[in-house]
Design a protein that fits this description.
globular; about 45% helix; alpha+beta; two-stranded antiparallel ribbon
Length: about 300
């Protein structure tokens, strides 16, 4: 629903009789988060005790990173790739630096929205505990392709249920980065989700993309791939923290800017001016057409 230039989304939360209090606790925490790369929670509404709670969130019409990667007209975003990668990390750092840390629990391109300024915005976080209360295990049908972004320790389905951690978030970020860089889902060559689960649990990881969507120079590509390998290592305790990841990304991409002489920033500015030029030309042609019709009357 919308009014003027602002629109809202009402997200229905399916709960059991045990979870409303947990939902409200999560909502209070979420409402206190103020960060440009985190989708704000505007409120919660519930008609009565029998109805499902509704989370009130801003509506971002530009879709998600997932939809951007699937849209052939939007796939070439080399100029903004580095910026998006770093800003996703900043959003995760903001969550993990809270006391106690906030665990996202479901990181994949579909849960990273794109705002009107083309910034990545994390959404749908903090509800993994609520989903766990509602259903004691993840089914393959529910997860679909999102299985590919889950850490192996979450795929063993222990009897006491699964518990997302900062380390499992880091794993999901690594797979998301790979998806954005390569343009393809992790293990795209494997169609069967059960087999994906098997290879993840066995410690196998995706191959380095031979022809990635985003072209990086050799130094950046090597350092970025090394970081991804650290982030998705099998032992959770050996994965770097989100803060360390952000530091390494900023260092890697700063060197990339130096190596390329600011090529990515220049490309982004050039694309902006081309878009602006086209808009001006389109407006001018429209006015000229109207003047031409008027002069012939």
């Amino acid at each position: 629903m919308g009014s003027g230039n602002s629109s809202l989304v009402l997200l229905i939360i399916h709960t059991t009789h045990h979870t409303p209090q947990l939902l409200y606790q999560e909502a209070i925490t979420h409402s206190q988060l103020q960060h440009p790369n985190i989708l704000p929670l505007l409120g919660i509404y519930r008609d009565n005790e029998e109805s499902y709670p509704l989370m009130i969130l801003p509506y971002l019409p530009d879709g998600s990173l997932e939809s951007m990667l699937m849209d052939s007209q939007l796939r070439a975003f080399d100029a903004s790739f580095l910026t998006k990668i770093v800003r996703i990390a900043r959003g995760i750092v903001h969550l993990h630096s809270r006391k106690p840390p906030i665990i996202h629990g479901d990181i994949h391109p579909g849960n990273i929205l794109i705002d009107e300024f083309r910034n990545p915005v994390l959404c749908d976080f903090g509800r993994s505990r609520i989903r766990h209360e509602f259903s004691q295990k993840l089914s393959n049908q529910e997860q679909g392709g999102r299985i590919r972004f889950l850490a192996p320790e979450l795929l063993n389905f222990p009897a006491e249920g699964f518990h997302s951690t900062q380390e499992s978030d880091v794993f999901g970020v690594a797979m998301t980065y790979l998806n954005a860089w390569s343009g393809s889902r992790p293990f795209a060559e494997i169609k069967n989700e059960h087999r994906v689960i098997s290879v993840l649990i066995k410690g196998q990881r995706p191959n380095k993309p031979a022809q990635p969507l985003v072209v990086l120079d050799e130094i950046t590509k090597t350092e970025f791939w090394t970081l991804l390998a650290n982030m998705w290592t099998h032992e959770p305790a050996q994965r770097p923290s989100s803060g360390k990841i952000l530091e390494r990304l900023e260092r890697i991409f700063h060197k990339c800017e130096l190596v390329n002489g600011g090529a990515f920033g220049t490309s982004l500015k050039l694309r902006y001016f081309i878009t602006l030029r086209d808009a001006i030309l389109s407006t001018t042609n429209t006015h000229l057409g109207q003047l031409s019709k008027t002069s012939h009357r």
